[in-house]
Amino acid sequence: MTMADWFSPAQLFGYVAFVLGVGCFLQTDDRRFKWFMAGECVAYVVHFALLGNPTAVASSLISMTRSLLSLRTRSKWVAVAVVAANIGFGLAIARQPSDWLPLTASCLGTIALFTLQGVPMRLLMLCGTGLWIANNLIAGSIGGTALEIVIAVINLTTITRMLRQRPPEAA
Q1: Could you report how far apart the first and last alpha carbons of the chain are, in Å?
Q2: Neighbouring C-beta atoms of residue 115, cutoff 10 Å
Q3: I need a labelling partner for 62 at 20 to 30 A (CA). Which of 54, 109, 155, 171 fits?
Q4: Percent of the chain having pLDDT more than 70?
């Protein structure tokens, strides 16, 4: 990879996703978390389209929609529809096992955003982060790989911060 590749339009959108993703996982407020995540997904859509990774594009589009929907509802039926959309896209466009990495990550994120909150939500999102790290390494995404590694560290730090801020339980 040449230095020019590091500054290609595809990689530049990966860096935008990086900034928004870091901002996302620094949030302790669930609503701000979801707004930042939607922005990160928009940048990821362009990034992965330019890298030629259609399953990551589909997953990012679904994830963006999911993040926005989760701001308005916690309906289990909406969550089921989003997971079904991920599976449908996967069946339609996945060509190799690694194509399922971003789609599975999106499914985990959907379950997290619609059924959990606080620390449990962030723990399940952390599992999805691991899948995105693998996808981004395979896709050659510089900003995406850096983003997901940093997100994992920030998410763990935020989880620790949230656990420390919890009031002590009554004995």
Answers
A1: 58
A2: 14
A3: 155
A4: 96
Query: What percent of the chain shows pLDDT beyond 90?
Result: 47
Interior/surface letters 62-84, b for 16+ CB within 10 angstroms, e for the rest: bbbbbbebbeeeeeeebbeebbe
User: pTM (2 decimals)?
Assistant: 0.79
pLDDT at 39: 95
**Which one-letter DSSP state was computed for residue 112?**
H
> SS3 letters for 38-83?
HHHHHHHHHHHHHHCCHHHHHHHHHHHHHHHHHHHCCCHHHHHHHH
Query: Tokens 């969550």 label which residue?
Result: 79
Question: Apex CA 26: angle with CA 35 and CA 110, to 5°?
Answer: 50
Q: Work out the angle at residue 130's Cα, subtended by the Cα atoms of residues 128 and 132, and round it to the nearest 5 degrees.
A: 70
CB 110 within 8 A of CB 83: yes
User: Could you tell me which of 41, 81, 71 has the C-alpha nearest to residue 58?
Assistant: 41
**CA geometry: angle 155, 86, 132, nearest 5 deg:** 35
